[in-house]
Amino acid sequence: MRLIGITGGVGAGKSTILEYIQAHYFCRVYLADQVAHAVKEPGQPCHEALTALLGSDILEDDGRIHRGKMAEKIFRSPVLLEQVNAIIHPAVRAFLLKEVEKVRQEGQTELFFIEAALLIECGYREIVDEMWYVYAREDVRRERLLRSRGYSEEKIEQIMGSQLTEEAFRAGSDFVIDNSGAPETSFRQIRVRLEGYTWRQ
Length: 201
Known about the structure:
It is built from nine helices and five strands. By secondary structure, the protein is α/β, with parallel strands linked by helices.
Protein backbone atom coordinates (compact mmCIF):
# COMPACT_ATOMS: atom_id res chain seq x y z
CA MET A 1 0.00 0.00 0.00
CA ARG A 2 1.28 3.47 -0.88
CA LEU A 3 0.62 6.19 1.69
CA ILE A 4 0.26 9.67 0.16
CA GLY A 5 -0.17 12.99 1.97
CA ILE A 6 -2.04 15.80 0.26
CA THR A 7 -1.46 19.31 1.54
CA GLY A 8 -1.77 22.92 0.41
CA GLY A 9 -2.93 26.34 1.49
CA VAL A 10 -6.52 27.36 2.10
CA GLY A 11 -8.47 27.76 -1.14
CA ALA A 12 -6.02 25.71 -3.20
CA GLY A 13 -8.71 23.15 -4.06
CA LYS A 14 -7.59 20.03 -2.22
CA SER A 15 -11.19 18.80 -1.98
CA THR A 16 -11.62 18.93 -5.77
CA ILE A 17 -8.44 16.92 -6.26
CA LEU A 18 -9.52 14.29 -3.74
CA GLU A 19 -13.00 13.97 -5.22
CA TYR A 20 -11.42 13.12 -8.57
CA ILE A 21 -9.01 10.63 -7.03
CA GLN A 22 -11.80 8.89 -5.10
CA ALA A 23 -13.88 8.61 -8.26
CA HIS A 24 -11.11 7.15 -10.42
CA TYR A 25 -8.76 5.14 -8.21
CA PHE A 26 -9.14 2.27 -5.76
CA CYS A 27 -8.14 4.03 -2.56
CA ARG A 28 -8.92 5.20 0.96
CA VAL A 29 -9.09 8.91 1.77
CA TYR A 30 -8.98 10.43 5.24
CA LEU A 31 -9.47 14.15 5.86
CA ALA A 32 -7.62 15.27 8.98
CA ASP A 33 -10.29 17.91 9.69
CA GLN A 34 -12.98 15.22 9.88
CA VAL A 35 -10.80 13.09 12.15
CA ALA A 36 -10.18 16.17 14.33
CA HIS A 37 -13.94 16.58 14.79
CA ALA A 38 -14.29 12.89 15.65
CA VAL A 39 -11.66 12.94 18.41
CA LYS A 40 -13.46 15.89 20.05
CA GLU A 41 -16.68 13.93 20.58
CA PRO A 42 -17.73 13.08 24.15
CA GLY A 43 -15.76 10.08 25.40
CA GLN A 44 -13.02 10.58 22.81
CA PRO A 45 -9.41 11.53 23.64
CA CYS A 46 -9.62 15.32 23.25
CA HIS A 47 -13.04 16.14 24.71
CA GLU A 48 -12.11 16.38 28.37
CA ALA A 49 -8.81 18.20 27.75
CA LEU A 50 -10.42 20.81 25.48
CA THR A 51 -13.26 21.40 27.92
CA ALA A 52 -10.78 21.92 30.74
CA LEU A 53 -8.74 24.34 28.63
CA LEU A 54 -11.54 26.39 27.07
CA GLY A 55 -14.30 26.11 29.66
CA SER A 56 -17.61 24.26 29.81
CA ASP A 57 -19.36 27.15 28.03
CA ILE A 58 -18.11 25.72 24.70
CA LEU A 59 -20.38 22.69 25.20
CA GLU A 60 -23.82 22.18 23.71
CA ASP A 61 -26.69 20.79 25.77
CA ASP A 62 -25.82 17.22 24.71
CA GLY A 63 -22.19 17.61 25.84
CA ARG A 64 -20.69 17.97 22.39
CA ILE A 65 -18.22 20.76 21.72
CA HIS A 66 -19.84 23.61 19.79
CA ARG A 67 -17.51 24.32 16.85
CA GLY A 68 -18.51 27.98 16.59
CA LYS A 69 -17.98 28.72 20.27
CA MET A 70 -14.63 26.95 20.25
CA ALA A 71 -13.51 28.78 17.11
CA GLU A 72 -14.56 32.11 18.59
CA LYS A 73 -12.36 31.53 21.64
CA ILE A 74 -9.22 30.61 19.71
CA PHE A 75 -9.61 32.80 16.60
CA ARG A 76 -7.78 35.82 18.05
CA SER A 77 -5.55 34.03 20.56
CA PRO A 78 -2.37 32.46 19.14
CA VAL A 79 -1.57 31.04 22.58
CA LEU A 80 -4.92 29.24 22.89
CA LEU A 81 -4.67 28.05 19.30
CA GLU A 82 -1.26 26.54 20.00
CA GLN A 83 -2.59 24.82 23.13
CA VAL A 84 -5.61 23.44 21.28
CA ASN A 85 -3.41 22.16 18.44
CA ALA A 86 -1.14 20.46 21.00
CA ILE A 87 -4.18 18.51 22.19
CA ILE A 88 -5.81 17.70 18.84
CA HIS A 89 -2.90 17.02 16.48
CA PRO A 90 -1.34 14.10 18.42
CA ALA A 91 -4.79 12.49 18.74
CA VAL A 92 -5.43 12.86 15.00
CA ARG A 93 -2.02 11.45 14.17
CA ALA A 94 -2.55 8.45 16.49
CA PHE A 95 -5.98 7.78 14.93
CA LEU A 96 -4.62 7.96 11.38
CA LEU A 97 -1.63 5.72 12.10
CA LYS A 98 -3.96 3.15 13.62
CA GLU A 99 -6.18 3.27 10.51
CA VAL A 100 -3.20 2.99 8.17
CA GLU A 101 -1.97 -0.10 10.01
CA LYS A 102 -5.45 -1.65 10.01
CA VAL A 103 -5.91 -1.10 6.27
CA ARG A 104 -2.42 -2.46 5.58
CA GLN A 105 -3.25 -5.60 7.54
CA GLU A 106 -6.47 -6.05 5.54
CA GLY A 107 -4.41 -6.00 2.34
CA GLN A 108 -7.25 -4.78 0.12
CA THR A 109 -6.22 -1.15 -0.48
CA GLU A 110 -3.28 0.03 -2.57
CA LEU A 111 -3.56 3.81 -2.22
CA PHE A 112 -4.18 5.57 1.08
CA PHE A 113 -4.48 9.38 1.06
CA ILE A 114 -4.31 11.68 4.09
CA GLU A 115 -5.33 15.31 3.51
CA ALA A 116 -4.56 18.29 5.75
CA ALA A 117 -3.14 21.79 5.48
CA LEU A 118 -0.68 21.06 8.32
CA LEU A 119 0.81 17.74 7.23
CA ILE A 120 4.32 19.12 6.80
CA GLU A 121 4.31 21.11 10.04
CA CYS A 122 3.00 18.11 12.00
CA GLY A 123 5.77 15.79 10.82
CA TYR A 124 3.80 13.59 8.41
CA ARG A 125 6.67 13.83 5.92
CA GLU A 126 8.36 11.11 7.96
CA ILE A 127 5.29 8.87 7.74
CA VAL A 128 4.02 9.12 4.15
CA ASP A 129 5.63 7.60 1.07
CA GLU A 130 4.88 10.74 -0.96
CA MET A 131 3.79 14.26 -0.10
CA TRP A 132 1.68 16.06 -2.72
CA TYR A 133 1.30 19.84 -2.67
CA VAL A 134 -1.87 21.26 -4.25
CA TYR A 135 -0.85 24.72 -5.45
CA ALA A 136 -2.97 27.58 -6.74
CA ARG A 137 -2.01 31.20 -7.35
CA GLU A 138 -2.86 33.50 -4.45
CA ASP A 139 -5.31 35.59 -6.48
CA VAL A 140 -7.18 32.41 -7.47
CA ARG A 141 -7.30 31.23 -3.87
CA ARG A 142 -8.61 34.56 -2.64
CA GLU A 143 -11.33 34.61 -5.28
CA ARG A 144 -12.43 31.08 -4.38
CA LEU A 145 -12.61 31.91 -0.68
CA LEU A 146 -14.58 35.10 -1.27
CA ARG A 147 -16.99 33.49 -3.72
CA SER A 148 -17.53 29.96 -2.44
CA ARG A 149 -16.99 30.32 1.31
CA GLY A 150 -17.94 33.95 1.83
CA TYR A 151 -14.81 34.67 3.85
CA SER A 152 -13.98 38.27 4.67
CA GLU A 153 -10.68 39.78 3.55
CA GLU A 154 -9.63 39.88 7.21
CA LYS A 155 -10.29 36.18 7.69
CA ILE A 156 -8.46 35.30 4.47
CA GLU A 157 -5.44 37.33 5.56
CA GLN A 158 -5.47 35.73 9.00
CA ILE A 159 -5.63 32.15 7.67
CA MET A 160 -3.10 32.65 4.86
CA GLY A 161 -0.71 34.37 7.24
CA SER A 162 -0.79 31.39 9.58
CA GLN A 163 0.05 28.82 6.89
CA LEU A 164 3.33 27.83 5.25
CA THR A 165 4.70 29.89 2.39
CA GLU A 166 4.61 28.46 -1.12
CA GLU A 167 8.38 27.90 -0.92
CA ALA A 168 8.03 25.90 2.30
CA PHE A 169 5.18 23.79 0.86
CA ARG A 170 7.26 23.02 -2.22
CA ALA A 171 10.37 22.21 -0.20
CA GLY A 172 8.43 19.69 1.88
CA SER A 173 6.71 17.95 -1.04
CA ASP A 174 7.58 15.35 -3.67
CA PHE A 175 4.97 16.34 -6.24
CA VAL A 176 3.18 19.61 -7.04
CA ILE A 177 -0.26 19.83 -8.65
CA ASP A 178 -0.94 23.25 -10.19
CA ASN A 179 -4.65 23.72 -9.51
CA SER A 180 -4.87 27.36 -10.64
CA GLY A 181 -6.77 26.67 -13.84
CA ALA A 182 -9.44 24.33 -15.19
CA PRO A 183 -10.02 21.14 -13.16
CA GLU A 184 -9.21 18.91 -16.13
CA THR A 185 -5.70 20.37 -16.25
CA SER A 186 -5.19 19.29 -12.64
CA PHE A 187 -6.72 15.87 -13.26
CA ARG A 188 -4.31 15.31 -16.15
CA GLN A 189 -1.38 15.93 -13.79
CA ILE A 190 -2.74 13.28 -11.42
CA ARG A 191 -3.17 10.75 -14.21
CA VAL A 192 0.42 11.29 -15.36
CA ARG A 193 1.69 10.86 -11.80
CA LEU A 194 -0.23 7.63 -11.25
CA GLU A 195 -0.08 6.16 -14.75
CA GLY A 196 2.45 3.54 -13.73
CA TYR A 197 0.21 2.23 -10.97
CA THR A 198 -1.97 -0.81 -11.63
CA TRP A 199 -4.91 0.03 -9.32
CA ARG A 200 -6.77 2.56 -11.40
CA GLN A 201 -10.45 1.61 -11.64
